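RESIDUES AND SHAPES:
===
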Amino acid sequence: MELFEGRPTDCQGRLAKEIRVYDFLDSLGIKYQRIDHEALMTIEACQEVDQLLGAMICKNLFLCNRQETDFYLLLIPGDKKFKTKDLSSQIGSARLSFAKENYMEEFLDITPGSVSILGLMNDKDRKVRLLIDRDVVKEPYIGCHPCINTSSLRISTNDMLEKIIPAMGHELTYVEL
């Protein structure tokens, strides 16, 4: 695997949603590094890539309440255990569970295994609330997929917090898990 600067020079064979991510980042003047790899479906499978990227390994969890009316994208360190009760009390939403695949595709234009904070750029109606564990932002870089799990990006945490999230129009709620 090789670390590249910025977007691929040849985008043939790449999905439109991935190209939209590169267009979005480039429009903001964001510098990022990229590794292309085979599809990675789990946090464990991402470890080698994240070591090469030198970035925080994040779990990206797409959650909802029992009524399926409130949706959340939670970023936590990859080695941290997730317990719904710890999060529920902090955000005032009981009975959290993993949201159905169809909501993930409808709101974020992503599929399981490709969940990424960058999917929020597709959430024009702001249906998904962004939650980030405070430990995630202690690291200088965040690793994430460009809405497809065959590439991974390294983005400065400051750029993510100060440029990307505001440009996506999503407010950020910090949590401590």
